[in-house]
Amino acid sequence: MTSEVLWLPRPDAVETTNIGRFGQWLSRREERDLTSYPALWQYSVEHLRPFWGAVWEYFGLGTTVPEHRVLADETMPDTVWFPDETFNYARAVLTAPGVAEDDVLVRAYSDTRDPVEWTLADLREAVARARAGLVAHGVRRGDRVAAWMPNIPETFALMLASASLGAVFSSCAPEFGAKAVLDRFAQIEPKVLVAVDGYRYGPKAVDRTEDVRRVVRGLEGLGSLIVLPYLNPDADTEGETWDRFCAYDEGVAFEPLTFDHPLYILYSSGTTGLPKAIVHSHGGMAIEHAKMHSLHHDLGVGDRFFWYSTTGWMMWNYLVSAPIVGAGVVLFDGMPDPAGMWRLVERSGTTYFGTSAPFLMACRARGIKPSEEADLSRLRGIGSTGAPLPAVGFDYVYESISPTAQLQSLSGGTDLCTGFIGGAPTVPVWRGELSCRCLGADVQSFDPEGHPGIGREGELVIASPMPSMPVGLWGDPLKHRYRDTYLTDFPGIWRHGDWITITERGSAVISGRSDATLNRGGVRMGTAEFYAVVEAVDGVADSLVVHLDDPGQDRLLLYVALKDGAELDEDLRRRIVSALREQLSPRHVPDEVRQVPEVPRTLSGKKVEVPVKKILKGVRPEEAIARDALANPDALRYFLRP
Q1: What crossing angle do the helices spanning 357-365 and 338-348 adopt, rounded to 10°?
Q2: How far is CA 609 from the centre of its chain?
Q3: Exposed/middle/buried for 15, CB within 10 Å: 0-12, 13-18, 19+?
Q4: What is the pLDDT of residues 588-599, one digit of tens each?
Q5: Cβ-contact 104, 117 below 8 angstroms
Q6: E-assigned strands of 236-389?
Q7: With the C-alpha atoms ordered 447, 453, 454, 460, is the resulting torsion angle positive or negative?
Q8: C-alpha angle 252/258/259, rounded to 5°?
Q9: What would the DSSP string read from start to end of 453-509?
Q10: Average of per-residue pLDDT across 430-439
Q11: Which three-class secondary structure string do you get for 502-520?
Q12: Which one in 191, 423, 502, 612 has a CA-CA gap of 20 to 30 Å to 352?
């Protein structure tokens, strides 16, 4: 596999980047050369105990730990990390290395209110006040604290306050409807719910007052409701107000917890059935995010990290860990206007901006040229996740956004709350590829018999444990559902559910979900490959492909959403078909090409091929997918036509 190089590391990257300095430090410690990325990655997956022990020590998360007590049991899912250590995630965030008390650590922007800036001292005080409020409401270690809150500083403070006590935090974005919130929070029975009265999304005001009442009625055992009057600050609210809740500052203390103590609960997309409630740990999140933020994103003191996310996506949890390595965070709550977002990157002084692949492709479809609209000279890194970024998306970034920033296309997931394939400052960027497997992530491409391979497509698996693997699924004490979800196809090996090709140079290509594969006449193809070709055709903004392959029928249906001014005439159909025939396979030319106004996506931006396939096969929409799991549920009606 050959691909064009779009970005190269600096010649002095080993001396000037965080990962280079870490590699030098580890090389001296291990008395071997680990300064090249391939050597460092190989060491990190072949020597789990000394590698993760080194990360723990290097980032000041704890003192030196004997190798045999770094990883006491590596059998998934019963892996035991750092069994003798006590730890608290909130302490790690609030003792940001190199950050002075009066340094601005949080910059927050919103469609609903004026910008907010918090210094480290401000964040500490906010955490102390929220902690006192939780204690006053009887919250103790192990209790759940639920937040139906936007991406604002108060949510960050509430999460840290919960963590400081050993309570378990969980959040949903205000965009989630009441049913979606209940589907999630009812599983975990929170003791306290904190919610906003509403929010603004661009020019639109969304009142959540009645929805909050509905959620409160549906949560058995809920002790207290706290309301932050975010949309209408002067209005009367039901329940205790946030200001009253935070009336007392009794200082911050940190409960000493085990490494694997639950920190927060994230949720799968819940496209069918109840979302899985995925439990992540204090130690696992801190050590994994320290590694990613410093070594892969090159973040440190003076940097400003901005990943556009809501509190309902794992990227919010990922974002707010950045102070562990001394970096400030930029929060945004509102409509992601494509042009305005880049102006906000400039305004906030962001040095690393992350977003979703669909957002970048939407910017490209609209012809937005951020480099002409904003001064992005401070921007050193651009992250993309949520879906594979096609090669034309790479072209767009380097032609229209920044010719010098490192583009890092990441793949990971809510299940591990991190990216396990991405980029690093010492690795080139190849067009259309994820640059490297991340340190400590033993990502392999397995054939059906469980044999790893290079240069051919296979199932994405993680063959060795990582500290950020969930400590469990809520309500699954014996881990039966955990094993069935991740560890059954290849016993003892984590199967993630994607098709992956790992190249000889160590980069990777994600071809799409393995449960949405297109297989015609024995020629198998991932949907991501298909979309990369279709969405490069002039006039196409978005697409979704479905293969109806029941006995007696073999039809490939392509649905396209078009750019403004384009129409699905014979010329566009011909260009789509020609591109697929020439660039992919004649067998993957669609039987029909249909136009839709928009492609249905989950709240985190993923296309929903499998539920649409079920609907086309006659399954009722409400049985095929949970409506509240979709960002645009009305888009489903276009797939009900014969």
Answers
A1: 120
A2: 20
A3: exposed
A4: 889 999 999 999
A5: yes
A6: 240-241, 257-258, 262-267, 277-281, 304-307, 328-333, 352-356, 381-385
A7: positive
A8: 100
A9: -SSSEEEEEE-S--TTS-SEETT-TT-HHHHHHHSTTTTTSEEEEEEEEE-TTS-EE
A10: 97
A11: ECCCCCEEEEEEHHHCEEE
A12: 502
Per-residue pLDDT, averaged over 229-250, amounts to 90
Give the distance, in angstroms, between the CA of residue 599 and the centroid of all CA atoms in the same chain.
Answer: 21
Nearest partner of 1 among 513, 536, 456, judged by Cα: 456
| Torsion 139-165-213-232 (CA) sign | positive
Distance of CA 309 to the CA centre of its chain: 8
Measured distance CA(193)–CA(56) in Å, rounded: 34
Cα torsion angle, 313, 350, 286, 289, sign: positive
| pLDDT score at 508 | 96
- Name residue, tokens 């949510």: 155
Contacts of 353 (CB under 8 A, 6+ apart): 306, 307, 308, 345, 379, 381, 382, 383
Q: How far apart are CA 42 and CA 439, in angstroms?
A: 8
The candidate with the shortest Cα–Cα distance to 495, out of 510, 485, 508, is 485
pLDDT value at position 519? 67
Reference 325, options 361, 358, 354, 352; nearest CA is 352
How far, in Å, CA of 398 to CA of 6, rounded? Answer: 8
Q: Which of 514, 88, 48 is nearest to 261 (CA)?
A: 88
DSSP letter for each residue of 148-204:
E--SSHHHHHHHHHHHHHT-EEEEE-TTS-HHHHHHHHHHH--SEEEEESEEEETTE
What is the dihedral angle through the alpha carbons of 408, 410, 416, 418, rounded to the nearest 10 degrees? 20
Q: Give 544-596 as a DSSP string.
A: EEEEE-STT--EEEEEEEE-TT----HHHHHHHHHHHHHHT-GGGS-SEEEE-
- Size of the chain, expressed as the number of residues it contains: 642
As a dihedral over the C-alpha atoms of residue 24, residue 30, residue 35, residue 41, rounded to 10 degrees, the angle is: -130
| Burial class of residue 136 (count of CB atoms within 10 Å of its CB; 0-12, 13-18, 19+) | middle
pLDDT tens, residue by residue, 332-391? 999 888 899 999 999 999 999 999 988 998 899 889 999 998 999 999 999 999 888 989
| Whether 628 contacts 184, CB under 8 Å | no
Integer Cα distance of 235 and 216 in angstroms: 19
